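Team,

Forwarding the record for the chain on the shared tracking sheet. I've put the sequence and predicted structure together so nobody has to dig through attachments.
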Amino acid sequence: MKKLLITGFEPFGGEEINPSWEAVSRLPDIINNYELTKIRIPVEFNESSKIVIEKANSSSPDAILCIGQAAGRTAITPELLAINLRYASIPDNNGYQPLDERIVPNGENAYFSTLPMRKIAEAINDNKIPSNVSYSAGAYVCNDLLYSLLFHYKTTRVKVGFIHIPYCKEQNKEPSMTLDDIIKSLIIAIENIDE
């Protein structure tokens, strides 16, 4: 059996919940041929990727899939790439607010996801849940995490990807999606994680 490390974030920006962790925490422990390790991570530059890498060092996953909330999105959006940039319109949960800093000083300007994000988006769409590939994970902690992981694992066998999800209905904000549909979409994503 293969191993998948899957992450969701703690609440941020004044929210009481974060749908990424609400969905991840409710996933089955085994999906297809993957055994899942689920972790809740802080909305903090540097710290989130450090925690994921430490957990990966002890659990030796074949793949890492991170989930994050993106306000304003109407669909499940697998991210195709991460950029080497930190820009925060609001401080992270540790009060840090970088304005146009590089994540890795000598790193590439961008890295492509090493999971089949277009295939994942198509599979979710085929199951009547709106999904499309995103070409920008922004410049906040989600992008920071994805870039840091892609940089760290670029010469290894570990595959890395990130999926942004909308608000869930429980947050009383629009646009939103039911938590059941978000969970279903993540199960479909994991079922299609292999090339």
